[in-house]
Request: fold
Amino acid sequence: MSVDGAELWTLNQRLLGVVMDACTRELAELGLETKEFFVLAEVEASPYPAEIATALLLPKASVTVYVRNLVAKGLVRREIDEADLRRHRLELTAEGTQARDRALAALAAEYDRRLALVTPQDRVELHRILKAMLASPASGRTRD
Reply:
């Protein structure tokens, strides 16, 4: 049986959408919209707005709006980068770290609920496959 890469990509996107939809209530309780959550979750790995835009495949203008919202909510602090005074560096506040961790826990719980439908052997294989795909030189970068 041949499996089309586009179909696999579509199924993966649908799964991610279903998981995110199931967590909408938890995100709302934290005062977060879905894309704000993704920005919040990326701040430690990519502390500059332009890096976040690249990592999340979002327009820089959209990231600017999400960052402003997160700053206004007290979840992110925006400071001038001492190494380059032209740039702003982002940092999670204690409240931002708590919100991120609670949102990630909700996502993990929902994803685990879905993974429970898959055998432990298949989970190990899925893990191996995803890591191999992310490590591929064609991907341009790797993330753990």
Summary: The two ends are 31 Å apart (CA to CA). The mean pLDDT is 91.
